[in-house]
Amino acid sequence: MQYKTLGKTGMRVSQLCFGTMSFGSRADRGESQRMYSICRDRGINFFDCANVYSGGTAETFLGSFIAAERDKVIITTKAHGATSDDVNSRGCSAKNLRLSLEASLKRLKTDYVDVFFLHGYDSDTSEETMQRTLDQFIREGKILSIGVSNYAAYQVERLLRISEVKNLAPVQVIQPMYSIAKRQAEVELLPMAKAEGLGVVTYSPLGGGLLSGRYKDGISRAQGRLVENEKYSIRYSGSFYEQLARQFSLLAEELGIEPAPLALRWVMNNPLVTAPIIGSANAVQLEQTLKACTLALSKEVCSRIEAFSPSPPPAHDRSEEQL
Fold it and tell me: Which residues contact 231 (CB under 8 A, 6 or more apart)?
């Protein structure tokens, strides 16, 4: 396992981050423990979580797994999504962030989290309020660094400028969606992260399973999240994704490589990505995905993959300047 510095935090993290969204949902406690143990045996020291995963069960599982080695792992959690029917149990208000963090720390059985993410942008809360709340958490030692997930580049830059002007702790990590199926991050988020020295922890490297080989014969004909989960159905609907799933699977067959590690390796090859988040429902899937660590892709293979999903145009739309 290789390790990289997470932005300017100084923390060294494994080149893969294990996402715990399946803990307590698709994976019971025993299977979750097996996957955690496999990750640790393979050198993964980076684990991503959120307060909304399995209604808090994912944090509870993760907290019990890391208890004996808390100082050896880097963990994240998040706040923003609704955790109850109460009108204030959502968003990034000072109240909800405070309550969410305190509840997460209890479930995780730890005094601090290494990265605390705002899980989404909250237009109803002033950015300065968010920054001051997070800065206070750092001063209290309850979080070590600040991250944002699902933010546009301009929203991150606004937070960075506020922290600079007000002398508050800045955002140090971003968590965008990124795969060969979803390349929008290449337009502004990844270049911004490079310019600002931010850590980049991307999610959905397999496109919600689209690139796993399961949908080679069509999305509607298979089983999985793209069919069963409305959010994923919307995110990956349309002829482009149907064609991409088929073309990518056929290329993987031609190369003699399983689709999942092939898709993951393509993301890992991007030098602007610190660590993609991998997720699995069971130990078998995890072992298959981890083959990406020993996989080498030639420039020719990368070019063939990228031909299925061309880079989006630059932010200023002057495509001729890319030549």
Answer: none
State both tokens at 109: 């059985």
Separation between Cα atoms, residue 12 and residue 4, nearest integer Å: 5
Output phi, psi for 27, to 5 deg: -125, 125
CATH code of 87's domain: 3.20.20.100
Residues 71-96 as b/e (b if ≥16 CB within 10 A, e otherwise) read eebbbbbbbbeebeeeeeebbbbeeb
Helix, strand or coil for residue 150? coil
What does each C-alpha distance from 60 to 16, 23, 112, 141, 244 come to in angstroms?
22, 9, 14, 21, 37
pLDDT of residue 321: 72
Q: Convert the pLDDT of each residue in 72-91 to its tens digit.
A: 999 999 999 999 999 999 99
Q: Where are the beta strands (DSSP E) in the chain?
A: 3-5, 12-14, 17-19, 46-48, 74-79, 113-118, 143-149, 171-175, 199-202, 275-278
In a domain, 33, yes or no: yes
In a domain, 228, yes or no: no
263-271 average pLDDT score:
98
Assess if residue 185 is contained within a domain. Answer: no
CA distance 139 to 146: 12
Q: How many CB atoms within 10 Å of residue 316?
A: 8
Q: Which amino acid is at 281?
A: A
| pLDDT tens-digit series, residues 174-199 | 999 999 999 999 999 999 999 999 99
Predicted model pTM: 0.96
Range of the domain at 153: 3-175
| Active-site amino acid positions | 53
Cα angle for residues 301, 304, 306 (degrees, 5° grid): 110
User: Would 235 be classed as within a structural domain?
Assistant: no
**Using N-to-C axis directions, what is the helix angle for 259-268 and 239-255, rounded to 10°?**
100
Total count of domains within the chain: 1
